[in-house]
């Protein structure tokens, strides 16, 4: 038994099954895109720790900031004001869309979603929330009530939070109406209007929450016209628009936030994952006008805005700016899409390549065009054996996510994509 195997067995003995990991690999240390396991195996991490490590592992500026802060104090806990926390808040609100200039720090994406729901209900005086089928917003009870990327997440937890309504997300490749994006004409938006007519009047809806780039549900970027249509509906009925950018934010798509590609500004923005390069931090961001309606006893967090996490966040945001990583993500994304589309032209098992920046999805289908989750997982396993870490997503687990750090090198891209295409050729050859 290897050292890797022994650690995994120890984990199984003391860590509950919900916390078990994707693959039985360990980490001894990481630098940039590379991870080295306890027994010395090297991997290119194209999962970025689940879209968290936008600067890669152990970016020197982040490590330096964490060490410096740790020398002074580790915790403020709502008792003391911290320079690190305030400066990180200033830096984060400097890169959000105009007018989103006040925030509340929590510890994670799901906490940030919970905070956004509370903010919307508290300030609007309304209770109903509309979410999208296929969305993933977290696993605590409020966030779980929104999540519908898989019924497995919701099993045995009912009843969930009431007054949550679901409408279709424009996942155009698997359109429930059998339409393509060009012919659609806004069917998903029409579904919201039907919801108003038959189930909940718009004046009782506090918020609509949506991922501008659907993550766990299958890696589908929402069409610009859809996001603009949501903004119009929300403006018409006085509904708050919440964008969940937990996975797609902090430069992942080549802009600070994915919604900027569509030129649509939400009323409330939720972010987490990459904001502190692996330390626990999330944020609910809105206008000062809205936030000041959220009275101080109505929400709180002991560990939210932890000074060490905020020092990491400040260093992360500054490094993205100083190193030009938004542009770098766009260049890397264009190379990935171009390469993968060429692979798709030679291999009909790839149904679609989609995405932007360093957030790319590759959807696998069988001969009949149905989801091929088995091929997808076999490909992931084959790539792992060859030294590239990938993860899947989608209801049928038939979509591979390629989410390398924003500063992934051209050589690393070439190596990982070569392994991907070679593995696919081998698998399809065996299949035939």
Based on CA atoms alone, the radius of gyration comes out at 21 Å
Count of runs of 4 or more consecutive helical residues: 14
* Unreliable runs: none
Cα separation of the termini: 35 Å
> Strand order within the widest sheet?
4-12-11-10-7-5-6
Pfam families: Aminotran_3
Cofactor: pyridoxal 5'-phosphate
Keywords: Aminotransferase, Pyridoxal phosphate, Transferase
Protein name: Aspartate aminotransferase family protein
Briefly, what is this?
This is Aspartate aminotransferase family protein. The chain is an alpha/beta fold.
Describe the protein's architecture and organization.
With 432 residues, the protein is an alpha/beta fold. The chain is built from 14 helices and 17 strands. The strands form four sheets. The chain has a seven-stranded mixed β-sheet, with helices on both faces. The longest helix has 22 residues, at 325-346. The protein is globular, with a radius of gyration of 21 Å. The mean pLDDT is 95. GO terms for molecular function: transaminase activity. Belongs to the class-III pyridoxal-phosphate-dependent aminotransferase family. Its cofactor is pyridoxal 5'-phosphate.
